[in-house]
Amino acid sequence: MTELSYAAGETTTPLLDETIGANLERTVARWPEREALVEVASGRRWTWREFDRAVDDVARGLIAAGIAAGDRVGMWAPNCAEWTIVQFAAAKAGAVLVNVNPSYRTHELAYAVNQSGLRLLLAATRFRTSDYRAMVEEVVAAGEVPGLERTVYVDSSDWAALIEAGAGLAEDALGERQATLEPEDPINIQYTSGTTGFPKGATLSHRNILNNGFFVTELIGFSETDRLCIPVPFYHCFGMVMANLGCVTHGATMVIPAPGFDPSITLRAVQEERCTAVYGVPTMFIAMQSAADFASYDLSTLRTGIMAGSICPVEVMKRCVDDMHMGEVSIAYGMTETSPVSCQTRADDDLDRRTATIGRAAPHVEIKIVDPLTGETLPRGVTGEFCTRGYSVMLGYWSDPEKTAEAVDGDGWMHTGDLAVMRDDGYCLVVGRIKDMVIRGGENIYPREIEEFLYAHPDVEDVQVVGVPDPKYGEELCAWIRMRAGAAPLDAVRVKEFADGRLAHYKIPRYVMIVEEFPMTVTGKIRKIEMRERSTEVLGLA
Fold this sequence. Notes:
Largest sheet: 9 strands, mixed
CATH class of the domain at 49-182: Alpha Beta
Strand order of the largest sheet: 3-2-11-10-12-13-14-15-16
CATH topology of the domain at 49-182: Rossmann fold
Helix content: 25-40%
């Protein structure tokens, strides 16, 4: 009888049963003088003792500002040392940190403030084209955020004033606050991308994200001797959980290369700070590997890292191993609602598992592949919806029980909306989103398969495939292709010539669009819904 698509992760190492603040203090006690945080752009550095003192100063400032346990405090800024300090200060004060997307504009800011019930916002004054101060002033003046009581700009005198106010509290005020907190308390709200309808606020607890950060880095062998380069955004789980909490739970050093991602700056930070690990979404690794000066950097200190956030091209993963010295690199898969990681490859996996799958069930996590219509668990090798259950599943969507019930069933299973296959060995492959699957003339086509095939073309740097309307077949395939430097642009004819005899005819893209970049969220996820809309418009298929 064929085995079903169900698996559970190992449970040898117990879950951490403590708050984020308590865990930080344990780390500080073990390695007080080791380096905790480095901000490359400013040259600032903190030992664990210094970092904890900075966290406590801000936590006391929050309490002095009237923030009670459970109150919502927002952070709206690019990657910076203050972001990390606020993350842990809010946790110690028991405030629910609301991650505000750095790319938000006024309408989205007002929505996040009002939907979460935000009382205090910490923000940068500006970054790139975003004038955060002007946007805050605009929504406040218009009366759009009546519940927002105060904004503190972390790169102004406001920051010192917040800390100074906290200095006037009783010495044991912070300790008393921490004593009231529990691991199951909500501590973080992260808004989903909102590609359909308004964004939903995934609400996560100390227990959710502390354990996920710990186990993700446990699986890549982190210790106090590791130094992690973090170009991924803090506003997302990849930065604040897998990176920051992963480092804190192991005493590893957090290295912030820049406020926003730049491939050469990231490579330089790895070299200069002697980093042992680097994180990134596939597009970041592609950009680093494609940098004109890539070969000039000494990356020999690297041994590991994580590629996640979207489907990982096999060839890019192989270059991480061969050219970036990341022999223990891992692929991780998950979503914000699951803190985020549900599956991960292991450091001792063979090359096939570490380049062709998303790994197997993470520790203390159950996974299964089900029929999207019936909910029945499918045999291994059959495509269905990926579901997961365990400590990592969110508490729910903030103030939205209806949407929560749609995502998490009565047995605690999170339905991800991802199409996946579980192999006989328990390792999984994601073949796309349920909504991304293309149905051409009754044939189900998974864009991932076509993308991996076209990526093998020597002139293709990156590729994404979407479905577009067709009067005869219902849908046809359109490939968006970024060419390698100096390569002649491909067209549909040349793509067909490359694919003939190697792909079924119905899987060969009818349309090809040569582009410089793909529409993406700030976390590096491809916005395929926008690609479909733009393809339909450009090709005149509406």
